[in-house]
Design goal:
single chain; 182 residues; alpha/beta; globular; five-stranded mixed beta sheet
């Protein structure tokens, strides 16, 4: 049995990582028996069975003042999702907290939680930018560290930061992501 807590600031790709982990830990967690039709798990909240459990947390979680701190002993793996602070902040202000002061305060509280969790021996840091830059080899190696065999690619590392970076070359082209040569 493996229990995964996946946690990060709002808009830091925690939902995507939750879907990837759940799908690769046990395909039947996210898809019906024919493996074609998806079940209702979109990366929010949790999903599991008697052998595996995946819990998603964005900080804040649910209500604007909820900052859960998973306890190390309750989880086999705590996966901390990171993304460029200002890109995450700008994305958050477009979707969750329009007020800059409130958004910054929420991010700062969340960072405190993530820093404490990073001290646990069973915590692992997942970097969105590394996934985008290195592609599937990064995802494969990251998942291997946490006991997951990466067999099913369900997400692609898109350049989600481009709209937040002034002068970003992908703003003016139709290049969607970096493909490393093989």
């Amino acid at each position: 049995m493996a229990r995964y807590a996946i946690i990060g600031l709002e808009c830091s790709v925690t939902k995507a990582l939750s879907r990837i982990v759940a799908r690769n830990v046990k395909p039947s967690l996210t898809h019906k028996e024919d493996d074609r039709e998806r079940k209702g798990f979109d990366g929010h909240k949790n999903i599991g069975d008697e052998h595996n459990f995946v819990q998603h947390y964005s900080l804040p979680y649910g209500k604007r003042d909820n900052y859960p701190e998973p306890l190390s002993q309750d989880w086999d793996y705590i996966l901390i999702c990171t993304r460029d602070f200002w890109c995450s902040m700008n994305s958050k202000m477009r979707t969750h907290a329009r007020d800059r002061k409130a958004a910054r305060s929420q991010h700062d509280k969340g960072i405190g939680v993530l820093r404490r969790l990073a001290e646990y021996d069973n915590s692992y840091v997942f970097s969105y930018e590394s996934w985008y830059l290195l592609g599937e080899v990064y995802m494969r190696d990251f998942l291997k560290q946490v006991g997951v065999e990466y067999r099913i690619q369900i997400e692609e590392a898109l350049d989600i930061n481009r709209k937040h970076v002034k002068g970003h070359p992908n703003k003016i082209s139709n290049l969607h992501h970096y493909k490393a040569s093989k």
